[in-house]
Amino acid sequence: MRLTHIAASKSAAPAPLSGQAVTLLFNDNALMPQLLGDHDRHLVRLEQGFGVRLACRGNKVAISGAPDRVQAAQAALAGLWKRLERGEGVTSGDVDAVIRLRSAADEDPRLPLSDLPAIRTRRGAVGPRSPGQLAYMEALQRHEMVFALGPAGTGKTYLAVAQAVAMLTAGRVERIVLCRPAVEAGERLGFLPGDLKEKIDPYLRPLYDALHDMMPVDQVLRRLGNGEIEVAPLAFMRGRTLAHAFVILDEAQNTTEAQMKMFLTRMGEGTRMVITGDLTQIDLPPGVRSGLRDAVETLEGVAGIGFTRFGTRDVVRHTLVARIVDAYDQRAAAAREHSRENDGA
Hints:
Layout: E1 6-10, E2 20-26, H1 32-36, H2 41-50, E3 53-57, E4 60-65, H3 67-85, H4 92-103, E5 119-121, E6 124-126, H5 131-142, E7 145-149, H6 156-169, E8 175-180, H7 196-214, H8 217-226, E9 229-233, E10 245-249, H9 257-264, E11 272-277, H10 291-299, E12 305-309, H11 319-344
């Protein structure tokens, strides 16, 4: 049953000192378990994320706390309910996303949840789950070439593949080309078993995984077979001109300067390019400069090229991932400060 309205009223219970109490009334009891989550875990996460008290009785949810936090939690619940109205589920990831986006709404007026953009694929709509993802999706729509920089778990590759699939199925490009540099992260490629394809496939697995999330398996296999989708290591791009294609270079921090220049100059008529990478996870040999770092320094400000930088608040994997990234960033900052002090001594 579709929800016909959400009613909000002042709670009859007294509000806490310098606080506010609001009660939301939802008129579809069948959807309430999905809103609350197993053992009310979604409500618990919303309480933690917004610093409010939430109490549910029947089809009513009471919110109490500081007025600005109550307002944010109310908008978040309304946004989640609209997902259920549209027949979409609500997962823990969706709850975390709505917390991130509502928390950033004061900084960015573009963030009312009802107006968020979405990438339409045959598996459904893919929407932003963080402020950085919102900026990234807008850049993907506006620019022919986009650089996405930031830590693991921010959706750089996933959203690029979603945009590529959406443009392919809409007929706006004729094929998708996905590539990665085959650089070992402490392992040796030559010692892996199998032929060249079997050696390279593990490096390309994240791209395959994203594809399978966007399209049915039989479609992925058919399009891989007829060349509409190509997944290849970066070395296979040399000497080619890619026209009317959506091309994604993943893990670009592991390209050399020459490889990056070679890749960028493959761009042909009607082609979109997305280059993703994390400059804190470079696996190149010591003394070899990252092509991604060089490209950012060289091309930032060039008309037609967009840049999106993600931070730890944009990490949409497990919450521990953001804490891990923060811990490494803090250690790196402390090491740089220590080095400066030693140089000045």
